Amino acid sequence: MAKALVSTSFDTSSNELIQLVSFKLDNEEFGIEVLKVREIIRMITITHMPNTPHYMEGVINLRGKVIPIVSMRKKFNLMESENNSQTRIIVMDVGGELMGFIVDAVSEVIRVSASEIQPPPNVVSGGIDQDCITGVINQADRLLVLLNLEKLFPADNKQFLIGL
Fold first, then answer.
1. Architecture of domain 17-162 in CATH?
2. Which residues, 6+ apart, have CB-to-CB distance to 14 below 8 Å?
3. What is the pTM of this model?
């Protein structure tokens, strides 16, 4: 298991450069640590599993490994939309296990100074758990919400997903 060199609690007083993968859901942009991302793939056939949480799309076989797939739209209680040519699955290391996350589009890998990261607001809407938001970056024409996906899935829930 690779250990991330960048912690999810950023020291915003430093000028350390942090690399993030930005992705879109609906009309919002989010960022996650690039070191947690194993790969980004196009949509493939997902095998649906019975009796799973509503946001679980199912599992895929990625080079012989079964990986649970989560719909980020469903997890964040956003309206569903049809997959298109921009839809991607981001395969990430979450707590030492691989999980896939369906997003509307992957934008880019960006570098930001830790000092650009502002603390998350006290009030969060849209069903996103406050603990999973590690900060917000205000760039000229956009806001980028930084996520810690490990905090989005409590250990007991994650064990259920990984046990598929």
1. Beta Barrel (2.40)
2. 114, 115
3. 0.81
